[in-house]
Amino acid sequence: MATKDSLTIVDNRTGKSYEVPISDGSIKAMDLRQIRTGPEDFGLLSYDPAFTNTASTRSKVTFIDGDKGILWYRGYPIEQLAEKTTFLEVAYLILQGELPTQKQLDEWTWQVTHHTWVHENVKKFMDGFHHDAHPMGMFISTVAALSTFYPDAKVNADKGRRDLQILRLVAKVPTIAAFAFRHILGQAYAYPDNDLSYVGNFLNMLFKTTELKYKPEPAIERALDVLFILHADHEQNCSANAMRAIGSSEVDPYSALAGAAAALYGPLHGGANEAVLRMLRSIGSNARIPEFIRQVKGGEAKLMGFGHRVYKNYDPRAKIIKKMADEVFAVTRPSPLIGIARELEKIALEDEYFVSRKLYPNVDFYSGMIYEALGFPVEMFPVLFAIPRTTGWLAQWQEMRDDPEQKIARPRQLYTGYTQRDVVPMGKRG
Ligand code: SDX
Predict the structure, then answer these.
(1) Which residue of 230, 265, 306 sits with most ligand 1 atoms within 8 Å of its CB, as the best mutation to test the pocket?
(2) Residues 120 and 43 both lie in one domain
């Protein structure tokens, strides 16, 4: 029988049948609206809370195969990128679509290096936070505040105007992150050093004290560079969706990116690495793991750092990070929690409860222990996630702005509230 790329839908309420084309493994939700019971009927909607089975866009940036544990940026496997490139190369790839030549990389590096400073008033703005303000709250607010320093960013319909804002954000997020870190330490801000690499300069702004010139530890600089590569983008995750939805109103990218960072802050998303450390600390010893597992199975706790909406296999980033942990611990002090983490992972990978739910370690399970070994307080972990993901959010944003199929995001709803009713005078209420 000849096959056709279409669905034939019979509406049993009316006996009518409809032909709905299938393309790219999907149907257009708008093709359901023709299915109506009469002229008064608005037509069928598709209902998909949290978009578990809804494609919101076409995209060329990142490809994930959750069953096979595959992650590609612009077609390049994450394993190769982590081994053979640097974060700024990957940032160029994700934003421009191709790996840079040496000349292109040199120019990109020069441009990023010369946009790392922020307006001096940003310091005054940050000084207004309490000494114990969460650095992610400071990061989100300060990125949003940058929109007031660059009002020209409101005009972002064409690529040329966007490129300058993208460059500013990629270059300045490490500075904002480092300033937030120094603020909570009560230390003076350390200014960018143009002689250092993107990550080397970030370490300089974080950890420089009285030395005239900060010299980053090469193994730590490389470890953080790889962690930035692994966190750069991840297709339509919660925060990328926020970036696209906010950006679809044509607001400036600083305001949209602040919203994306706010989404990342949540413990189910980028806040998970902070939650993993708190979970391991609360378990406290290998002896208490069985009790914790019982709590998780009883729904009293979540195994933070495990599970993923897309990966139903081992998160490929977690594999790379787990291998990296030993290299970092060789030049720092191993996290005292690593033993608990490894025993917890071993149990979870063998336990039917987790296996049946396809709960494997995700990118956040081991990254927190590396950040801790590098000397970061847990509060900095989501900020360390937001720095590289700024590149991914901007790539998703610019793709959305150039996509002729996109317009302002405005989902429908299934109304379940009251039918019309009349206002009752105050004296008759209650
Ligand atoms: C990131 O989307 C991305 O790409 C995100 C990210 C990125 O790079 O942008 O990869 C980064 O956010 C990684 C995820 C970090 N979050 C965590 O580690 C928090 C713990 N994980 C979960 O909360 C959960 O797994 C999610 C939020 C990550 C995914 O949730 P889903 O896809 O909505 O799955 P679900 O909540 O419907 O869970 C399915 C089942 C449920 O059990 P039942 O109700 O069917 O009995 O698995 C259970 C859940 O209760 N479950 C867990 C669990 N995660 C899911 N049970 C215990 N511990 C967990 N961690």
Answers:
(1) 306
(2) no
